[in-house]
Write a structure and sequence with these properties.
Length: 287
């Protein structure tokens, strides 16, 4: 079962029409889903903005157990919270003993998770599985920012559990921060899914494609005259799933795809640079 969820919590960064563009691009590529924001299903709502009550409920549970503490460190230290693609430096523990949850000079604190003193193992299927001692592996991460926004890690962990996600295939850039989500799921009494972190598509400068960097997306390829079979074939060939550049639909690729070929491709290719092809980023969980 393929479940499509829209991660739209960071409201200031949302672009008008972005969700419609995602759905349109996925359908153009020949992908469909069993549950999602446009067709509904038993695990909705399928936009994170409609699931906030779940995140605040989880925060309350963690706080009652003494696993959160208020943090009043500068925004510079917290800047990485809204961008899940790279791990932030370990928090030095400056506010770990504070208990002042109220406003101070008109400002509320952020809420940090007090990393438990235990071991964590990420169930990663394609790459060496990250594991280690949580305080030195992930540290005390922010789960709720001072402006009230819930952090990506908490929202993702809560949603994977509530939606019954068992398999997640996503970009390798998210692997370094996966331990936070796994540990949170375990702390909240859930079972983490198995992860498959595949290689990334990079631009000609070797940088990860991202909307924030102005990378060309699927719409640009469509306007340039590319059709879906050409794009799907080029991407499949770039990771070694096809020999040479072939045209085929997403359904045809799926019918030919087997796990050993996928594992071999992802283990031997860390980055993808198909000539003349750029696509945007997306993070869609597989269930």
């Amino acid at each position: 079962m393929f479940l499509l969820r829209i991660d739209d919590l960071d409201r200031p960064r949302l672009q008008p029409g972005a969700e419609d563009a995602i759905l349109r691009d996925l359908r153009w590529l020949g992908l469909d889903w069993d549950e999602g924001p446009d067709i509904g299903g038993p695990h909705g709502p399928y936009r994170q903005s409609g699931r906030r009550w779940r995140y605040h409920q989880a925060l309350s549970r963690l706080r009652r157990r003494g696993l959160l503490f208020p943090c009043r460190c500068s925004r510079r230290l917290l800047a990485a919270v809204s961008a899940p693609h790279a791990p932030a430096p370990l928090y030095p523990g400056t506010c770990r003993n504070r208990q002042d949850w109220g406003p101070e000079q008109g400002k509320l604190p952020s809420w940090r998770w007090r990393a438990p003193s235990r071991h964590c193992h990420v169930p990663e299927m394609l790459r060496p599985a990250p594991e280690g001692w949580l305080p030195t592996m992930v540290g005390d991460v922010v789960l709720r920012r001072a402006d009230g926004f819930v952090a990506y890690h908490l929202a993702t962990a809560v949603d994977e559990m509530a939606m019954g996600i068992t398999q997640v295939f996503r970009g390798a850039d998210l692997l370094p921060t996966t331990a936070v989500q796994v540990a949170l799921m375990e702390e909240l009494g859930g079972m983490p899914p198995r992860y498959w972190h595949g290689p990334l598509l990079l631009d000609r400068h070797g940088q990860r494609l991202a909307k924030r960097a102005g990378s060309m997306g699927v719409e640009s390829l469509r306007q340039a005259g590319r059709d879906a079979p050409a794009v799907v074939g080029a991407l499949a060939a770039s990771v070694g799933l096809l020999r040479g550049r072939q045209r085929l639909s997403a359904a045809e690729l799926l019918s030919e795809l087997d796990l050993p070929r996928l594992e071999a491709a992802c283990q031997t290719t860390s980055t993808l640079q198909p000539e003349g092809l750029s696509v945007g980023e997306s993070n869609h969980p597989l269930g």
